[in-house]
Amino acid sequence: MTDICYAPISAGCHETIGRDVPSHGPVADITGDLGPLPGTPMALKFFPRDSTNLFSFLREYNLSLSFCTHPYLTKALGIAFSTPSHYVFAQQASLFGDLYNVIVPEVGVEEDCVQRVVSQLCGALTHLHALGFVHRDVKPENIFLVDAACRWVKLGDFGMAKATGTKVPGVWYSSAYCTPEAEISKESEDSRHNTASKPDGGNGLDSKIKRVWVSVEASTDCWALGILTYAMLTGSLPWTQTASDDRSYIKYKEWFDQQKDQEGQDDELDLWGEGKDKGIVMSLDEDKQNRSRRKSHPVAPQFACFTPLASSLFLSLLHPQPRLRGRPDDVLGYLGGDWLQVKEKIQLEEEEKKKMRGREVISNEKEREGRGEG
């Protein structure tokens, strides 16, 4: 493990504690003289000592310090210390909050902004995966903004990151970000559900199966990237939970299966297309008509607002089989084209204008108050 500047100190600097995301401790943005250069902005990440063992703290710190050299990954700054109540390390500051605060519920963000963010995340994940790590917690709260327009974002919080191939307890949780392959762990003792008391006085844990061990794979991040892209474009999630009994997920799965069946039939058609026999040509004409009919299969309702290009992207990233799931570098081929249908774009632009007008009103009110005109 890399040598670390680690020592107990008494925290005496002024700090503003940010939102406490469940997977990590609170982050304080400060401007102090501890960084590489005097006055360098930095963020202090706090880990409560009563719920964090020292090894876990040092593991995350070392990963962020030694491997997060990509411009779209949050890097530790080589400063770690402890207080009586916390372990702390310093990392690069992102002074404009996180992506969660940018996404307007039921609206999303502008498509150009979405594609900028996705492009940067693809670079960050490709770099991380090439080093043999899987982030395992890609979500809006862990994507930090270096500027307000999302022209530069950084993926952070590596508390869940593991080396590819590591065996970990399988965990299922009620969220669209949970992968379909995690459902085998739904009734395991580690999964976060079914713990409420039963009518007979027992609890949900009584019926749980033993721990399920699974391998850490990069496909987990690819699924999360697909869900995140959907969330940014729509301001919502495609389904409540990735489970075989979730109606919205069932609709998606039916659409997915129809599309894959169609692709398989079209591939067979292409193989026959090289024949020169007239009888084969006749059968090709019939197959083209059949193909046209197959393409009329309805899109899953929650994906109807997307163009065929975006639909193909989602079908790739949200492939139910992890080994066939699209990779982050595959996504780059989908950038630059339209992802939203025209009607949805117009609606999004109107919502963005309303949001901007609201911000201007608040800004003007604050300015008048500052001049004492209120």
UniProtKB/TrEMBL annotation:
Domain of life: Eukaryota
Residue ranges, annotated region (Disordered): 352-374
Molecular function via GO: ATP binding; protein serine/threonine kinase activity
Domain Protein kinase: residue ranges: 1-340
Protein name listed in UniProt: Protein kinase domain-containing protein
Lineage: Eukaryota, Metazoa, Chordata, Craniata, Vertebrata
Name of the gene this protein is made from: LOC112229865
